[in-house]
Design a protein that fits this description.
alpha/beta, Rossmann fold, 2 domains, 7-stranded mixed β-sheet, 4-stranded mixed β-sheet, 8 helices, 30% helix
């Protein structure tokens, strides 16, 4: 049993016990350096500070071949955290079947494949995934193998200019861009903006370090009010929001920064 499991069994407040806390934190740091799956460590002000704290000798970020085979289970069917997005996406695509969906951080097209049988894509639909080069290359090859002509890949955010729907499902926390900066990079204000699987809470925004089991990542935790305000200030209205209990974030040796459920949002341009 690793120190991560021991800490959980002792309780979230075990680290406050004099002496024991220092021992647990040192042991957790050693365990974390071994790349546990979905582990978190540290509270930092910026991406640069978080990246400087990443244990050396391991891959950082998603631009590696080892990362291209993740999330394949999501390609076969919708997951619990997908259903609110499916509902709103169906409404949007019914109103305009020949839409361009810009899927920021959409990996090898997992949402496109996983949702295809639920949404019944119109022949005029185009689905463009923006990803880091290694993942975009793997996605392009997979789409070629499967004969998916509606699905394409890019590493350029500006390629999404003119999209009808911009979707980011569990990806924005990995980039050092707020939503306004993201839309500036795209160069447009799409009619529909869907942000899903967002780690938000009521406290001050910060950056932590995540281990996915294959690489380390700087990982942003958002203040929910600030996030919504930053988007509505761009001329959007918040149509709906929801909770995703499929995902959670526990950062040991911190107080009040754990997230029991992630959040999703659907914004529509006024």
């Amino acid at each position: 049993m690793g120190i991560i499991d021991v800490t959980k069994r002792l309780g979230r407040n075990a680290w406050r016990v004099p002496g024991l806390g220092q021992i647990l934190e040192a042991d957790y740091a050693r365990d974390f350096a071994r790349l546990p799956r979905n582990g978190f460590r540290g509270v930092y002000r910026t991406f640069a500070e978080a990246e400087a704290a990443i244990p050396p000798g391991h891959p950082v970020g998603y631009d590696h071949d080892a990362m291209t085979t993740m999330y394949r289970n999501r390609m076969e069917k919708a997951c619990q955290s997908d259903y609110a997005v499916l509902y709103w996406m169906r409404e949007v695509l019914r109103a305009k079947p020949a839409s361009l969906v810009f899927d920021v951080g959409g990996h090898v097209g997992v949402s496109y494949y996983g949702w295809k049988k639920y949404l019944g894509f119109d022949p005029g639909l185009r689905w463009l995934v923006q990803e880091v080069p290694a993942v975009a290359e793997a996605g392009t090859e997979l789409a070629r193998e499967r004969g998916e002509r509606a699905l394409a890949f890019t590493s350029d955010l500006a390629a999404g200019r003119g999209c009808d729907v911009l979707m980011a499902a569990g990806s924005l926390q990995y980039v050092d861009l707020g939503v306004p900066q993201l839309l500036d990079a795209v160069g447009a204000r799409p009619a529909h903006l869907i942000l899903n699987k967002m780690p938000v809470y009521d406290g001050e925004a910060f950056v932590t370090v995540q281990s996915t089991g294959r690489a380390f990542h700087a990982y942003r935790i958002y203040n929910g009010t600030e996030l919504v305000t930053s988007v509505t200030a761009l001329g959007y209205e918040l149509v709906d929001d929801w909770q995703n209990r499929e995902q959670h974030c526990e950062i040991p040796f911190t107080r009040g920064k754990d997230i029991d459920a992630y959040t999703g949002y659907y914004f529509r341009r006024r």
